[in-house]
């Protein structure tokens, strides 16, 4: 007799969504989470003053209908990212203040090169079937090409190439030389194209939940009552003709089905008996996460707003590669998010925390002025060393992986079902994609029971 109809491995957005939908369909569910907290690759700290900091996934945007629907169901409102001012871009030591997507005051050939690259990427995205990107007309050649090779061949202006490399490769928390071009185009296409993925207003960083992402995942966990077990890493899944035995350190749970919602590389650390089909097993070895370091500088007030700035800035090859206004919906205190990804994140990760903080604050002061040199608080979240995240906020495909092993991303392996934002053909890499994947996995379980 089963202890539960379904065990969900992982208490991030994908796992909690799958569990919630199964519970609503009348199934018994147990969620097991290796960490001592909820949220997975999202993690919200609520501060004593009522403000909140999202150390992981943070933003939502138009077209992300499933996370918005979930928030409406749970009674959680959203608020717009602050954009009432100018953004900054620093290239070769020169600062450009601008509104919109591209600083038009840059040298004309730089702006033109960026615009041409965006146009090419849009056209490439239109040719990719989201359910099966490995069937795109140019899938074979694109999957043999790295993003770095494509940028070198199609973005001849060095400054434009550096900005695009930071923006695109940074999205996947890895160096451009690590990324399959097919994967990059597929991920961009899954979200509607580069304008959305790299955009703020009406883009991927358009809005935030009031209370941070934690307001959403805590509300889901509340509806699951006591059926969420923390500090319970899954060591093995033993599958037979009647069910699956889930083995943690201190307990075993028998279920009719299991939904595995952890990052792909982390799923590969579980022992499967019998072994998974070869393509799925090899996929676990071939889709790593990158490196991302997300820090927050806290100030008494968001002084940059008074200076006519949005807080959004980009500066390749600095200790503060990307910054964004991260204030709570109340507007205070002033919280500036600093995001470093890929090689820069790896370098900073190897530094002592005090030296890392000093380097980042120095970069902020050079960019935003002396007020930025005196934060009243500073946080570090190094996802690169998170044991149960495996690195950055998104698993990526190196060259050759999607065309060889991509078809194994979503199909169940017997009674084991797969969730996680990487398994979503829409909004891959976003919290919305995680929600979609959890809902799909729940539908698969229900359909299997009905068969």
From TrEMBL:
Presence of the UniProt keyword RNA-binding in the record: no
**What keywords would UniProt list here?**
Oxidoreductase
- Where in this chain does the record put each Amine oxidase domain? 13-446
- Superkingdom as given in the UniProt entry: Bacteria
Could you confirm whether the keyword Lipid biosynthesis appears in this record? no
Family per similarity comment = Belongs to the flavin monoamine oxidase family.
Q: What is this protein called?
A: FAD-dependent oxidoreductase
Species the sequence originates in: Mycolicibacterium rufum
């Amino acid at each position: 007799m089963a202890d539960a109809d379904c065990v969900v491995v992982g208490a991030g957005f994908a796992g909690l969504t799958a569990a919630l939908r199964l519970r609503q369909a009348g199934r018994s569910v147990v969620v097991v989470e290796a960490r001592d907290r909820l949220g997975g690759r999202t993690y919200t700290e609520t501060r004593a003053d009522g403000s909140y900091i999202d150390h992981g996934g943070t933003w939502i945007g138009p077209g992300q209908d499933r996370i918005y629907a979930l928030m409406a169901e749970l009674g959680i409102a959203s608020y717009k990212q602050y954009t009432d001012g100018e953004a900054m871009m620093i290239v070769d030591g020169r600062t450009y203040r601008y509104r919109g997507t591209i600083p038009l005051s840059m040298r004309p050939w730089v702006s033109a090169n960026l615009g041409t690259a965006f146009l090419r990427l849009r056209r490439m995205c239109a040719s990719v079937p989201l359910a099966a990107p490995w069937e795109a007309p140019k899938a074979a050649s694109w999957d043999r090409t790295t993003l770095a090779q494509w940028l070198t061949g199609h973005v001849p202006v060095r400054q434009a190439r550096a900005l695009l490399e930071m923006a695109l490769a940074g999205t996947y928390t890895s160096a451009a030389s690590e990324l399959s071009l097919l994967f990059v185009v597929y991920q961009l296409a899954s979200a509607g194209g580069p304008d959305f993925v790299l955009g703020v207003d009406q883009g991927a960083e358009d809005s935030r939940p009031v209370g941070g992402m934690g307001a959403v995942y805590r509300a889901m966990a509340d509806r699951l009552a006591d059926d969420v077990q923390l500090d319970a890493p899954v060591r093995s899944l033993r599958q037979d003709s009647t069910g699956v035995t889930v083995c943690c350190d201190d307990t075993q749970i028998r279920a009719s089905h299991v939904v595995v919602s952890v990052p792909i590389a982390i799923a590969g650390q579980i022992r499967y008996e019998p072994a998974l089909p070869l393509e799925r097993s090899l996929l676990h070895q071939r889709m790593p996460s990158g490196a991302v370091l997300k820090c927050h500088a806290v100030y008494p007030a968001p002084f940059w707003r008074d200076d006519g700035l949005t807080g959004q800035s980009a500066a390749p090859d600095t200790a503060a590669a990307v910054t964004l206004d991260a204030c709570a919906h109340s507007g205070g205190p002033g919280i500036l998010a600093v995001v470093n990804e890929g090689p820069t994140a790896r370098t900073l990760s190897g530094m002592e925390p005090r030296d890392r903080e000093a380097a980042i604050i120095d970069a902020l002061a050079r960019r935003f002025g002396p007020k930025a040199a005196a934060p009243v608080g500073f946080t570090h979240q190094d996802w690169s060393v998170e044991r149960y995240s495996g690195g950055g906020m998104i698993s990526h495909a190196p060259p050759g992986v999607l065309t060889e092993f991509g078809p194994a991303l979503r199909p169940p392996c017997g009674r084991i079902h797969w969730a996680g934002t990487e398994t979503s053909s829409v909004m891959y890499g976003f919290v919305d994609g995680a929600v979609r994947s959890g809902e799909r996995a729940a539908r698969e379980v229900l359909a299997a029971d009905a068969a």
